[in-house]
Amino acid sequence: METMIWVGMDVHARSTHAAAVVAATGELRRVRFGAGAESVVAWLQELPAPVRACYEAGPTGYGLARAALLAGVAVDVIAPSKTPRAPGERIKTDRRDAELLVRLLMAGQLRPVAIPTPGVEALRDLTRARDRIRADLLRARHRVSKLLLRYGRMWPADRGTWTREHHRWLEGQRFDDTNLELAFLDALAAVDALLRRRDALDQRLIVAAQDPDVAAAVARLCAFRGINTLTAVGLHAEIHDWQRFARPGRLAAWLGLVPSLYQSGESAQSGAITKSGSRHARRLLVEAAWHYQRPPSRGVALRRRQDGVDQRVVDISWRCQHRVHRIHTRLRDRGKPANVATVAAARELACFLWAAMRE
Known about the structure:
Number of strands: 7
Radius of gyration: 25 Å
Structural class: alpha/beta
Strand content: 5-15%
Number of domains: 3
Largest sheet: 5 strands, mixed
């Protein structure tokens, strides 16, 4: 009869601690490795099969799991936020972490994360880089506007900001003090540089959306109101494996869009959303959900994006507009804040996207 070997590993950039337990005898083996995955994979291959191994997700990425899979050894990457830990534990070492992981793995108390393909991971890094530029651009623009505000330079309130006209007005601002002039020009140059970087990444993401591996998924997501090509690429790169969610509620929970709950005895209290999972995907969904405040309609841009898409997906998109708009309206009529109603709408939108991607 085959005896399972359970392995827990604490992986760092320059070292890896492993703890292996033979299920039949309870024997515990401890091993320490240096940098790199080659020696770890070779050791896993030498263990008597079958072997079940795991390590926590971290800055070292998925390299060890992919190398072990190529060698025929299954290695799970565990979500650190879901790992049970004793609140009174005050001693933490790499060796103890490896032993904790192997015990929890044997007890079935660990939750693995989905390992993306190298292509999907690269696309995810690109979408997150674009999102970081978006955040940097917002801060850079604030620096420019607040600097001008301190010196009484204000753009008319009834005209839009950061348009071409507004930018020409900014370029025309001059100060008598040389130091102040240089500070302003530097802040404005930072905005222009970030705009060029953002536009370059946008073009690359549009090209990446046409890749055969993601084109079908992006087209389905773009069939929904409020989701353009960039949003669709970002959502698919973050979720990538839609089939792993057996029910739409599981996707909403993974995205952190479900309310937290505290229940004790006869009392139960709901709180704010859990905000677990991908923050980037959650932000994209919430931004898309704002579009559903308006009554259902099919504009020119939406009809263009729906051209060539499966009619069943288009029908799901149309039902989604009616359902999510009703949620927006009902919650706002009950006096709920706009952001609360929008998050609830985003949760419902995620469920419709799940249905479309599994259709």
